[in-house]
TrEMBL record:
Record organism: Pleionea mediterranea
GO molecular function list: cyclic-nucleotide phosphodiesterase activity; metal ion binding
Keyword vocabulary terms for this entry: Hydrolase, Iron, Metal-binding
CDD domains: MPP_GpdQ
Domain called Calcineurin-like phosphoesterase: residue spans: 20-209
Pfam families given in the database record: Metallophos
InterPro entries: Calcineurin-like_PHP, CNP_phosphodiesterase-III, GpdQ/CpdA-like, Metallo-depent_PP-like
Protein name per UniProt: Icc protein
Signal peptide limits: none
Xref: Gene3D superfamilies: 3.60.21.10
Protein family membership: Belongs to the cyclic nucleotide phosphodiesterase class-III family.
Amino acid sequence: MGQELALSKQINTLSTDCVRIIQITDSHIFSEDEGKLLGLNTRVSLEAVLERINKEEFAPDMVLVTGDLSQDASENSYQYLYQKLQEMGVPCFWIPGNHDNPEVMAKILKGGNVYPEKQLLSGNWQIVMLDSSVKGKVYGNISQQDVDLLERAQQQYPDKHLLVVMHHQPVPVGSDWLDNLGIKNAQVLFDSVQNHQATRCFLWGHVHQDYSGEHQGVALLSTPSTCVQFKPGSSDFSAGEEAPGYRYLTLHNNGQIESVVHRIHDIEFTVDYTIKGY
């Protein structure tokens, strides 16, 4: 599967001076319509997020969907997601998470405005989509094939600012149980981009919380789930009280990154905090 996904795509922006991106992540959709994660119907919460984006956001140039799209890796869940992404009407690009089945995703999540490309070019920016999932495991790892992709992309476009997108976190986020489930070989990513002279930013999901930081000169961002959140700073598994959300990024041609997390506060969501796993 890797070879056919290692494709590049040029995205034409609506603006001449920036690239506008929406990131949605960790939707955890089930096969059945009433599927719930920790007591929360994940289809209802995703549709609330998409409705907010459609009504209130300036039209993005692209949508990045960064893993754990499905909770049960079922064909039905991906068919539902394909329909919802098609309705967004802008180019949508995805990567798998630890709950996903990449082979099933590749079969269903393609066509129309939904693409499998992993190397995206837009304005002064290059976006590289990496697969950090490991079959049968919750933690992440970056394959040599994806390391090679990242290095080759920088060699091809050394002057472009670089956004590297993955599912798992490449740094600790301050929650003990989550920090054991990040990318095991994350240093290879930092080593790969250390000599890149333009802006460098890593963007991910997985942790179900908003995180921003910097490490070895690389800007770092994680984004809340479209469903249940995880409590920041928790030693053991704990659901958070924050509302479902998504991230809107504006990547300026000069390398500046503007980024805002939006949450859905106008709909009541019920979460079962007695459940201690997912």
